[in-house]
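PROTOCOL LOG
Step 1. Enter all chains and additional molecules of the complex.
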Amino acid sequence: MTSLLTVFLLVLALITALGVVRARNLFAAVMLMGIFSLLMAAVFLLLDAPDVALTEAAVGAGISTVLLLSAMALTAEEELAGGIHPTPALAVVLVTAAVIFYGMFEKPLVGDPEAPVNTHLAPQFFELTREQMEIPNVVTAVLASFRGYDTLGEVIVVLTAAIGVLFLIGPDAPQGSRAPSGGNLAGGGLKHHQPLRIVGKIAIPFILLFAFYVQYHGEYSPGGGFQAGALLAAGIILFGLLEGREAAAAVIPTRVLKAMAAGGALVFGGVGVVTLLMGGQFLEYRVLLDHPVSAQQLGIVVIEVGVGVTVSGVLLLIYHAFAARGRG
Amino acid sequence: MLALDLFNSWIFVLLLMVGFYAVIARDNLVKKLMGLSIFQSAVFLLFITMGTVTGGTAPIVLGDDWGAVFSNPLPQVLILTAIVVGISTLALGLAIVVRIKESYGRISDIDAPERDRRL
Amino acid sequence: MNLEPHLPALQVVVPLLTAPLVVLLRDARLAWWAALAASAMNFAVAVAITGQVLDGAVVRYDMGGWAAPLGIELRVDALSTILLLVVSGASTLALLGGRASLLEQVGEARQPLFMAAWLLALAGLVGILVSGDAFNIFVFMEISSLATYILVAGGPDRRALPATFKYLVAGTVGATFYLIGVGMVFMMTGTLNIADMELRLATVGDTNIVYVAAGFITIGLALKAAIFPLHAWMPNAYTWAPHVVTAFIAACATKVALYVLLRMDFFVFQKNLVDHELQFAFVLMPLAAMGILFGSIAAVFEPNLKRILAFSSLAQIGYILLGASLVTVAGFNASVLHLFNHALAKGALFLAVVCLGLRYRHLDLADLQGAGRHMPWTLTAFALAGLSLIGVPGTAGFVSKWALIIAALERGALGVALVVLIVVSSLLAVVYVARIVERLWFGEPPGENPAVSEAPWPTLAVTWLAVGANFWFGLNASLPGELAQRAGEAFLRHLP
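Step 2. Run joint prediction.
Step 3. Record the structure below.
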């Protein structure tokens, strides 16, 4: 069932999305993107997906806004008029939509507990989590154990992004012309805005604290390595925004960040190698200890730490790469 | 009731259209990337919606009550992964855009005939 | 301990976990050695798995010890094996012969990052090939795509950047289309495991949405596989990537996308959708035919060597699709065989381009005129690999083209038309290969004549090794033939 609040939020999200496409000022578009992400996060929360909501809020509204702003400081703020003729695009889009409608018409997506998607595997996930892992957050159980291999892949995707950003605009990349604008928000910091600094400085410890809570409480409540990593990075990026990038770089130097990014993935993969050497399948945590339930929990905790370390390292590396670009 | 039940699918399709349109029809590269993000968000909505169960709660067991009605955790896990993939693509795309700006001096109309030495 | 049961996991995990280690390295030479070692080990694992598959097994592996469909299953059959050999082999050869060229084109400081990206591209591609889970395929598709964007963006010309951006947008849209399709199937079946999907789709009454899902998956993958007319991203990406990267991805990246397309359309949907073959008869076969013609004709008129070969790839992708869209065992066989043989021919040709690229800055035919006088070994290798591309008897290219013609002839009048098409486009291939060879051997060098010498021996040796493979598998096609035949048998079991 869809609640009226969901309907309302979804309509707002749609309008915001339209605003993103229409806005000529890219700064406005970025702000609208942030709002769009927050609205989607609220919808996910209402649809019983708090883990997804937390991630969407931290990543969509937080990290990607900072990335877009940093990139914009290096490129341009206004979208030029003209360009591609809209008619063919409209045609393609309309055909796509019509095809989906043909397929999905009269298929209520929401709520049916008897739908195959909810009857085939979901009950077994609950049952096995109860028997073999005894952790209350089944999302974490599926993420870290049943589909742990996907999650390893996800960590590698994030690492790939960091490799790509460093390769393209890192310190060793070819240097281009200097950035056009002097007001590099991401790089320079807001040192002259006292109220912002004070509010920010009060907020940062709480964000970091919350990050660690989310990391270590991920088996019990929404959260886990990914969300924690994103929050930790967000806290430090906020510090960088207030005090300047160099100050943030002094908190955790780039060399350490690189080691974190690679090390977290290696910890995750290392767990897999250890289980393999101990006679199990790759990432089969239950062989880690004599007691299978504790073994599963141990495996989950360790790989979640790996996820958190890699994600925070990667996001900060990316932030530094963008913020330092064009300032020599 | 039916209209409301289908509401999420409507929004899914409409968001998909908005994002896809921006990807194809917008010339500005940053705008294209924003379009991609919206396009992907629509898919997130599709997955999360299909796993929701009427009268259920988030798939986190409270007070050892394993018998309660829960929403499906699997689509949520998939979408967590997809969100991460999305931000990774965005970061890489933006890095390319920055380099394009540095080498071409603009971030739109990159197909214009170039004065580069012939191939 | 006995590693044999873990081969499918090791296939992916070795390059996947070597990559983070390589990121931490500072020395370009060390990074190259690490990447080469991981890639070579990858090839060795692929050979070992091929042995198991040839013994008649479908090699299975339950990740995390969770049985499918609950957990993620790895599943290697003949169809995956033949591409595992191609991907890991191409990666190893390109790395082995490409060190000098990569140092020159990408620079020394960024080699560790570049090598890490290379390993991730490799891990992503083999990850797709061994996976038996539709969502897991999406994850590894993204790993390989993101890593490949990095590799392409490493090209020294600034035009590599817009090319990469287009590739990124096309790739992401393609992957998202695929994800929408998988989501719809998931909605109707509740499963992500490919084998389980096929079983459970049989019980789905309302198939409208499944048709739509099949459409989304096919279009998304067609975009990633650069099937005509969704190929717009491909020629520029191939042209402006570092030459060694082109040799690697031209042999692999689009073919792995095609593999997923075949896997999903034939092994999931074919059995469950009435008239599913019409999708091939009325959509994919005409597109394949148009792609063959368009690619061949465009190749004849292109001035740039790498773009000629890129458009030729467009035509070759058309052949592969054409065989599959006959929806017969013989057609499928020919298709799989051509996946293998075209990778051999194109890999060898692009390796020869790597040799040329070490001595010439620009690769227009006009710049390269007379190159053959200075680099006879390179040009001879190029000409011989060109024979395989054309499909001259005695080469690998002939084996699969012949198989394709036989398969087409099973289809009566339509088949005759297709054979005419294949013959015409092969003649066009003769024209564009001959044009290159003629100008590079006999053309007058442009302007002042630079002191050009033969390519360094490591690159040249690897190129000749690849050329040799074209003749080895042309005269003795039992290994790919056997694998293609087994893939055909599996295909037969999934017909309605």
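Step 4. Note key features.
Chain B touches chain A through 88 residues (CB under 8 Å).
The helical segments of chain B are 2-5, 7-25, 29-50, 73-104.
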